[in-house]
Task: structure prediction
Amino acid sequence: MLHRDIASGIPHEAVLAQLIMSSEDTGKKGSIKKDWDPKGKSGSGKPALFLPEEMDIYCNKVTREVFIFHGKVVDYESLDHLEYNPADYSVDVVLKDGKRLDLGVKIQWLVRPYFTKAQEIMIVQTKDGESVNGTSVLIKHKEKK
Result:
């Protein structure tokens, strides 16, 4: 349920989101811009499975389910597992043949608390707002050094 500011009619959540996502950098947290790499490599040097604009990460904080929604076709059969690195917030996509890809984005601080507790990730292909294909993939968490 949205809580509304009676005077302005604007949901409190919208105001909070605007404050959080403001481009003004207070110096307390790193810029969110560094979490999104337009080249789709996230600085890892590995090829990326997705470009940032090709995917969205959604975490259900109640059920603790994590979803990666995307539009492009992915060979789900080749996916073995994901590896989350808490040191740099990156995710490696490990294929069954041993090759590694970068997910394409670093995990942003808003979803980290839920992402770091996930044991599996649902990767779902969507088209016109409907899910058309998907799989669930085990996620391993590296230890923070």
Summary: The chain has one domain: 36-141. Residues 36-141 form one domain.
